Amino acid sequence: MGVHDFFNFVVYDNPISKSVTSLVKSTVPRGSPQIPSVTVITEKVPLWKLASENGPFIRLAGLMGASAVALGAYGAHRSYPKDRAQELKPIYETANRYHFFHTLALLGVPMTRNPKLAGTLLIAGTILFSGPCYYHAFTGDNKFGKLAPIGGTILIVGWLTMVI
């Protein structure tokens, strides 16, 4: 008896499978009508309506994007002190880069499970990280420098909130 014969016996030829098959055939009437398929028509909803409940985050992302562009243009055309230009310009570029990245991340907040928490954390983290960096780059004063690591930590928590 080969493997094929063994499976054939187990599935078709043994008394238990024969009785189950005959029972199923006797309970299902022949020529029974097919269950009609149901077509569900759904209205196409624009994306802006889907995100309207969390629309303030989209608007805030617009404001943050506009401010990132304005600060980017100002910082790119600003003249830094010659003795500290090599130090201050990279700080400004880091602040502006993080400002832009987290503005784009804020656009995805309405699609998360907890958008209010994720959006609030991303906004607060961006302000607390980029703000002191901008201040340091534009004034040369680092009195708010201790806020940047706190802002960075809040940004990490904001990203993790988008995952959960």
Automatic annotation (TrEMBL):
Topological type in the membrane: Multi-pass membrane protein
Cellular location(s): Membrane
UniProt entry keywords in alphabetical sequence: Membrane, Transmembrane, Transmembrane helix
Record InterPro entries: DUF423
Record-level GO cellular component terms: membrane
TM stretches of this protein: 57-76, 117-138, 144-163
Stated family: Belongs to the TMEM256 family.
PANTHER family: TRANSMEMBRANE PROTEIN 256
Record protein name field: Transmembrane protein 256 homolog
